[in-house]
From TrEMBL:
<dbReference type="GO" id="GO:0009349">
    <property type="term" value="C:riboflavin synthase complex"/>
</dbReference>
<feature type="binding site">
    <location>
        <position position="116"/>
    </location>
    <ligand>
        <name>5-amino-6-(D-ribitylamino)uracil</name>
    </ligand>
</feature>
<keyword id="KW-0808">Transferase</keyword>
<feature type="active site" description="Proton donor">
    <location>
        <position position="91"/>
    </location>
</feature>
<dbReference type="GO" id="GO:0000906">
    <property type="term" value="F:6,7-dimethyl-8-ribityllumazine synthase activity"/>
</dbReference>
<comment type="function">
    <text>Catalyzes the formation of 6,7-dimethyl-8-ribityllumazine by condensation of 5-amino-6-(D-ribitylamino)uracil with 3,4-dihydroxy-2-butanone 4-phosphate. This is the penultimate step in the biosynthesis of riboflavin.</text>
</comment>
<dbReference type="InterPro" id="IPR034964">
    <property type="entry name" value="LS"/>
</dbReference>
<dbReference type="InterPro" id="IPR002180">
    <property type="entry name" value="LS/RS"/>
</dbReference>
<feature type="binding site">
    <location>
        <begin position="88"/>
        <end position="89"/>
    </location>
    <ligand>
        <name>(2S)-2-hydroxy-3-oxobutyl phosphate</name>
    </ligand>
</feature>
<dbReference type="GO" id="GO:0005829">
    <property type="term" value="C:cytosol"/>
</dbReference>
<protein>
    <recommendedName>
        <fullName>6,7-dimethyl-8-ribityllumazine synthase</fullName>
        <ecNumber>2.5.1.78</ecNumber>
    </recommendedName>
</protein>
<dbReference type="InterPro" id="IPR036467">
    <property type="entry name" value="LS/RS_sf"/>
</dbReference>
<comment type="similarity">
    <text>Belongs to the DMRL synthase family.</text>
</comment>
<feature type="binding site">
    <location>
        <begin position="59"/>
        <end position="61"/>
    </location>
    <ligand>
        <name>5-amino-6-(D-ribitylamino)uracil</name>
    </ligand>
</feature>
<feature type="binding site">
    <location>
        <position position="130"/>
    </location>
    <ligand>
        <name>(2S)-2-hydroxy-3-oxobutyl phosphate</name>
    </ligand>
</feature>
<feature type="binding site">
    <location>
        <begin position="83"/>
        <end position="85"/>
    </location>
    <ligand>
        <name>5-amino-6-(D-ribitylamino)uracil</name>
    </ligand>
</feature>
<dbReference type="GO" id="GO:0009231">
    <property type="term" value="P:riboflavin biosynthetic process"/>
</dbReference>
């Protein structure tokens, strides 16, 4: 029996252009996500000149900006950052669900990684925990996922 080949991305072949699309709503949490993402990219060798930040009002607007970036800028990866915090109405489910499903569709449509760092949490405390305290920094994690996918796609002979 032939052994199964294995391939995964690394964090050494991550050169490229990265665009971070940031929802400003809940900026007191999101700013820490951005800092974590940028720091992670730079620490792994991405030149700061190859990192662009695009700000939109909130998570609802992120997919439209991501689509425009993918179509016009053609980056190696997009990192989406935002925070949707549950309130007393069903608004949370609509915003979070549509944002997530749209980003999933876009990465498949454009064959480009879209790393999802949009927090969907029940409380401000949970958001703060995921923005660099107890639960790590989800912006850092999204940047790491983007870099790993860029590396993997390069290894697979893709455009990344």
């Amino acid at each position: 029996m032939q052994p199964i080949a294995q391939l995964e991305g690394t964090f050494t072949n991550v050169d490229g252009r990265y665009v971070i699309v940031v929802g400003r709503f809940n900026h007191h949490v999101v700013d820490s996500l951005v800092e974590g993402a940028v720091d992670s990219l730079v620490r792994h060798g991405v030149d700061e000149e190859n990192i662009d930040l695009i700000h939109v009002p909130g998570a609802w607007e992120i997919p439209l900006a991501v689509k425009a970036v993918l179509a016009k800028v053609k980056p190696h990866a997009v990192i989406a950052l935002g925070a949707v915090i549950r309130g007393g109405t069903p608004h949370f489910e609509y915003v979070a669900g549509e944002c997530n499903s749209a980003m999933s569709r876009l990465q498949l449509e454009f064959n480009t990684p879209v790393a999802n760092g949009v927090l969907t949490v029940n409380s401000i405390e949970q958001a703060i925990e995921r923005a660099g305290t107890k639960a790590g920094n989800k912006g850092t994690e999204a940047a790491m996922a983007a870099m790993e996918m860029v590396s993997l796609l390069k290894a697979l002979g893709g455009d990344a």
